[in-house]
Design a protein that fits this description.
Layout: H1 2-15, E1 22-25, E2 34-37, H2 41-50, E3 54-56, H3 59-67, E4 72-74, H4 84-93, H5 116-137
Parallel strand pairs: 1-2, 3-4
Organism: Pseudomonas abyssi
Protein name: Polysaccharide pyruvyl transferase domain-containing protein
Pfam family, one: PS_pyruv_trans
Length: about 140
C-alpha cells in the first residue's frame, strides 16, 4: 500500500517540478525528499499550514488542506473502506475532483489551484451540520 502511494508521489513530483516533498508519517516513502517520522500534532499542523501543496491519503490531511485552503491531491487507500471519511468530506465540499484514483493520470489541470470561494458555502454547510450533530449528541445534563 505504501509503495503505491510513493509511486503516485513520484508522479506528482514530475508535475509539480520545483516542489520538494516532505513526508510526515510513521514509515518512510521512497520518493520523498525529506522524511519526518513520528512527529507530533503541532509539527504536523505547522507543516500543512506552511505547505505549498499537500498530497495525502488521510482524513485529517484532507480536512486541514481544506481548512488552510491549500491545493491538494487525495490519493485513496488501496483498502477502499479506509477512504469513507475522506470521500464524504470531499463530496460535501464539492472537491471530489481532487481525488486521484488508479485509472487516472496526473495532468497540470488535476493539480491546478483550487478556487475556495466556489466551495465556501458547501464547506460552511458541512461544518455547521457537523457542529449540529455534535451538539445534539452531547448530553449536557451529564456535565
Amino acid at each position: 500500500m505504501l509503495e503505491k502511494f510513493s509511486s503516485r508521489v513520484k508522479e506528482l513530483k514530475e508535475v509539480l517540478v520545483s516542489t520538494p516533498v516532505v513526508h510526515a508519517g510513521a514509515k518512510t516513502i521512497k520518493h520523498a525528499d525529506h522524511q519526518l517520522l513520528d512527529i507530533g500534532p503541532t509539527e504536523w499542523l505547522s507543516l500543512l499550514h506552511g505547505a505549498s501543496y499537500i498530497i495525502t491519503n488521510s482524513f485529517h490531511g484532507v480536512a486541514f488542506a481544506i481548512k488552510f485552503k491549500k491545493n491538494f491531491t487525495f490519493i485513496p487507500h488501496t483498502i477502499t473502506n479506509l477512504n469513507n471519511r475522506q470521500l464524504t468530506l470531499l463530496t460535501a465540499a464539492g472537491l471530489t475532483h481532487r481525488t486521484l484514483d488508479d485509472s487516472e493520470s496526473l495532468t497540470p489541470d488535476s493539480t491546478s489551484d483550487i478556487d475556495y470561494e466556489l466551495h465556501e458555502n458547501s464547506i460552511n454547510d458541512y461544518i455547521q451540520k457537523s457542529r449540529d450533530f455534535l451538539h445534539s449528541s452531547i448530553d449536557l445534563s451529564a456535565c
